[in-house]
Structure prediction request, 169 residues.
Amino acid sequence: MKLILPNKKYEKQYYDLVNSAIKYGDASELGNAYREKESFNHMLKRLNDRRKGINIHPRDVAATVYFIIEKDRLVGTIDARHYLNENYFEDLGHIAYYIKPEERRKGYATKALSLILKKYKNTDKILIACTKDNIGSAKAIENNGGVLEKIYLSKRFNVEIKRYWITLK
Prediction:
């Protein structure tokens, strides 16, 4: 498995991922990797700007979105936020990932999370959260050393959230 920056080589597979997410009602879970009716080229530019902290909403932070590639197949996306502000500290954390529904339960989230953690070289602790009912995501976090801090009702999303910390140093 490898994490790569989004690029034209995976355009068709990207749209397969998006269509699958829409089919399963998960499109909002794609996070920064998807905007409705956005062209692929515009998405590439937007993500490049976001990586540099350019043209982002004041509530947002600079972040790098990667494609999760397994044997030359796009199986998901992972979003690595460069730092946290109040908005991301409250409910979202440093990292968000999405695995294509047809590719779940194969260990991809666990492996992708382990790879992305290596990119946080100057960070002592990573905050990561998932919904309480997302058992697969909780297992991926726990398999990467995540320690549950608390479970709480998110006022923003009106759903119970499991909030974890992963110590890197």
About this structure: The chain has one domain: 2-167. The longest helix spans residues 11-23. The beta strands are 2-4, 63-70, 73-81, 95-99, 125-131, 147-154, 159-167.
